[in-house]
């Protein structure tokens, strides 16, 4: 007889295992086993003493066994395809006539700096772009297809370039006349004894050429949809990175390049007009003056960036990268657009070390980049590096060696007026001028000898900060200027046209017609006025006004089509308007500049709107 409550009684039969009751209705096991990744640790123990959840899962994986049934299971199963003709017909077909039309439009767009090709993924770019390197032999030019195959096929003797010895001699003489020993890269030239160097370059001249700086540059280029190349208005061609331009056009043709000519307040207005006209033949070009209080070209640049953002509606954000030489003002341009100091700036090169993201609007991001120096031979001259502001003057060991180049570029009257020297001063070379300047400034060594190195360093400081009047004249003769002049009031246009591909008529199957219409360009414009642009440097009357420069107009390429502009949000936070009534004119796309870049267009500013000071200002 068995008693109730004993181990073998009725009560024990109804008992359930503790682990089963604990797991019933719960997603995680409450077991304290070492193989349970969800176990609860005792309160008195530290978590670092026990195995982590990832370690337990990894050990459980090691102990697990493969599922042999799943390994030998055939994943391919019998399926049925819907009996619809669209699965078996042609989806995107382009005839040869349509491809030829597209090729013509593509060639025009490649040469037009104001054309933007949209929806590249829908176009057969591999069929539209012609190979840059032709084949080794063009067989069709020797023997046509009709004469080789078909009814008119006939056997021909091989055609060679020289049929007899006389023709071969003539060809050899012609090749000898065209040969240039300087361009022959296969020649082994004697450069002196092995390992001997006649000159050791200073380390300071390697600024902007390190691998780290170039890695930062390529980060910015790869992350940007629009690349703004900032150049110095005093020497636009000398501060252009043409190596980068060629590289971007070749390897990244979907990225858009804009030239921004900064520091236009240091050169005469007529030179700014001409330089914008010359550079606009290659890329959209805008004149700019960086300033938090009295900027020029700010609204024109914002309008141009908004047009690119409008063309890229399918993208959530549009990134704009600013690249260029050191000390050209990339960070200052970003601060001007934001109207506050968001990037660290200084009048010395190398202040920006790494790239930096800045938010302009909800859709437009700005990327600051350190300055780089291209490896072109034209950019490797040490004297030009000093004058272009690539290196810091205080780190140059012998600054007097680079004053000769400065004296060649600057007019004598400007130097004498700048340093208060007599107008009849005569000097044979840079050393004599520096001796006179050092005595004038009181920079003397022991024994009363003039310190020409200190005087040279002061001149380099003044040059880099724009205190010495100097600019490179634009390479445009007066006859070409008169031919390019148009009627107007001195306004320039930087246009961007979006090229929309024609919709394929063969998407539902069948071949498309060869007479399909070409892509339709959509043109939007940003106008820039130079009426109120003033020069902060004092030039002579001859340099201020050049014959043929008065009334000169800057014309942007592309179709003249007025596009209604949308209201531009303020770049600064809170949407507060700038004092002075800066705004955007509606209907014509004209910009309104603050201060010296003003415009008479209708402004997008409501009456009685509050400004930062709390006072109401109306039109």
From TrEMBL:
One of its GO terms (molecular function) is GTP binding. InterPro entries: G_CP_dom, GNL2_CP_dom, GTP-bd, GTP-bd_ortho_bundle_sf, NOG2_N_dom, P-loop_NTPase, TRAFAC_YlqF/YawG_RiboMat. Residues 1-16, 600-619 have a biased composition (Basic residues). Keywords: GTP-binding, Nucleotide-binding, Nucleus. Its main location: nucleus. Coiled coil: none annotated. CDD domains: NGP_1. Residues 1-49, 540-619 are annotated as: Disordered. Residues 28-37 have a biased composition (Polar residues). Residues 214-375 form the CP-type G domain. The keyword Manganese does not apply. PANTHER family: GTP-BINDING PROTEIN-RELATED, NUCLEOLAR GTP-BINDING PROTEIN 2. GTPase that associates with pre-60S ribosomal subunits in the nucleolus and is required for their nuclear export and maturation. This is Nucleolar GTP-binding protein 2. It comes from Chromera velia CCMP2878.
């Amino acid at each position: 007889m068995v008693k109730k409550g004993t181990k073998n009684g009725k009560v024990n039969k109804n008992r359930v295992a503790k682990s089963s009751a604990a797991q019933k209705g719960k997603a995680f096991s409450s077991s304290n086993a070492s193989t349970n990744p969800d176990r609860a640790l005792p309160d008195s123990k530290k978590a670092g003493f026990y195995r982590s959840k990832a370690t337990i899962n990894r050990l459980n994986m090691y102990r697990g066994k493969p599922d042999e049934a799943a390994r030998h299971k055939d994943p391919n199963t019998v399926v049925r395809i819907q009996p619809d003709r669209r699965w078996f017909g042609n989806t995107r077909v382009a005839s040869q006539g349509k491809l030829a039309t597209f090729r013509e439009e593509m060639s025009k767009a490649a040469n037009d700096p104001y054309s933007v090709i949209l929806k590249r993924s829908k176009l057969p770019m591999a069929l539209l772009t012609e190979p840059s390197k032709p084949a080794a032999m063009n067989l069709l030019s020797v023997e046509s297809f009709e004469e080789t195959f078909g009814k008119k096929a006939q056997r021909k003797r091989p055609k060679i370039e020289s049929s007899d010895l006389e023709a071969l001699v003539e060809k050899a003489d012609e090749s000898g006349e065209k040969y240039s020993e300087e361009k022959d890269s296969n020649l082994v030239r004697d450069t002196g004894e092995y390992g001997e160097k006649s000159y050791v370059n200073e380390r300071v001249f390697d600024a902007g050429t390190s691998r780290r700086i170039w890695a930062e540059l390529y980060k910015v280029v790869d992350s940007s949809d629009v690349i703004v190349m900032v150049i110095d208005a005093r020497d636009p061609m000398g501060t252009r990175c043409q190596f980068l331009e060629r590289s971007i056009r070749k390897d990244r043709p979907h990225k858009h390049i804009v030239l921004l000519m900064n520091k236009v307040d240091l050169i005469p207005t007529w030179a700014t007009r001409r330089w914008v006209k010359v550079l606009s033949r290659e890329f959209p070009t805008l004149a700019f003056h960086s300033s938090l209080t009295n900027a020029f070209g700010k609204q024109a640049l914002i309008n141009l960036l908004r047009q690119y953002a409008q063309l890229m509606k399918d993208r959530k954000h549009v990134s704009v990268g600013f690249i260029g030489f050191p000390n050209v003002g990339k960070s200052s341009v970003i601060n001007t657009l934001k109207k506050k100091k968001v990037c660290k700036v200084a009048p010395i090169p190398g202040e920006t070390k790494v790239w930096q993201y800045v938010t302009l609007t909800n859709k437009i991001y700005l990327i600051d980049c350190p300055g780089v120096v291209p490896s072109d031979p034209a950019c490797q001259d040490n004297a030009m590096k000093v004058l272009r502001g690539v290196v810091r003057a205080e780190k140059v060991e012998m600054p007097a060696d680079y004053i000769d180049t400065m004296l060649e570029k600057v007019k004598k009257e400007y130097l004498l007026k700048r340093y208060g020297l007599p107008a009849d001063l005569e000097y044979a070379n840079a050393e004599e001028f520096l001796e006179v300047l050092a005595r004038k400034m009181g920079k003397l060594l022991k024994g009363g000898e003039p310190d020409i190195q200190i005087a040279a360093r002061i001149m380099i400081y003044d040059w880099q900060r724009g205190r010495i009047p100097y600019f490179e004249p634009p390479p445009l003769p007066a006859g070409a200027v008169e031919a390019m002049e148009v009627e107007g009031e001195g306004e320039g246009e930087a246009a961007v046209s979006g090229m929309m591909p024609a919709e394929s008529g063969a998407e539902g199957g069948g071949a498309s017609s060869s007479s399909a219409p070409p892509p339709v360009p959509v043109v939007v414009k940003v106008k820039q006025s130079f009426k109120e642009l003033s020069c902060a440097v004092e030039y002579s009357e001859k340099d201020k006004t050049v014959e043929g420069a008065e009334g000169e107009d800057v014309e942007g390429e592309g179709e003249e089509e007025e596009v209604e502009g949308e209201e531009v949000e303020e770049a600064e936070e809170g949407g507060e308007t700038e004092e002075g009534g800066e705004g955007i004119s509606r209907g014509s796309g004209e910009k309104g500049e603050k201060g010296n870049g003003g415009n008479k267009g209708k402004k997008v500013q409501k009456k009685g709107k509050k400004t930062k000071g709390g006072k109401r200002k109306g039109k």
